[in-house]
Write a structure and sequence with these properties.
Elements: H1 4-23, H2 26-29, H3 45-61, H4 64-69, E1 72-76, E2 81-88, H5 91-102, E3 109-116
Parallel strand pairs: 2-3
Antiparallel strand pairs: 1-2
Length: about 130
């Protein structure tokens, strides 16, 4: 038969084990929740670069003209930098692209390699321009 001390000890050990299970541990589950305000770039560098690039792309695609511009985006989280390249039709559109890229992550540096080439929508190739004085 068990003595009173042994029974009390077993009860205490059981209560302690139950308390540990009730608290839980993110290490045991293998599926730790991501912090709500986790900055992009934490963890695997390749995955973080991809996440930052995706965030910038989503911001740029929110603007119809920038979506049509098909800009190239290269993200480097180790430098907290995004490089934009391609061609847009105006300085305003270039500035908008840089602004939207910066808003993808706090403090991100945007390397602007975007060319501005106004579209020649009203001109006819090879046509002569006349001016009347």
């Amino acid at each position: 038969m068990f003595t009173r001390k042994v029974i009390l000890g077993m009860l205490a050990l059981g209560a302690f084990g139950t308390a540990l299970l009730a608290c839980g541990s993110s290490d045991d589950s293998g599926t730790a929740a991501k912090p709500a305000n986790r900055p992009l770039g934490v963890g695997n560098t390749e995955m973080a670069n991809s996440e930052l690039e995706k965030a910038v792309r989503e911001n740029l695609y929110s603007n119809e003209q920038l979506r049509a511009a098909d800009l190239s985006i290269i993200a480097d989280v180790t430098r907290n930098q995004v490089t934009l390249s391609g061609t847009v039709s105006s300085e305003e559109l270039r500035a908008k692209a840089v602004e939207l890229a910066k808003s993808a992550q706090a403090g991100v540096i945007v390397s602007d390699k975007i060319n501005v080439q106004p579209s020649a929508s009203n001109s006819v190739p090879g046509a002569r321009q006349f001016s009347f004085v």
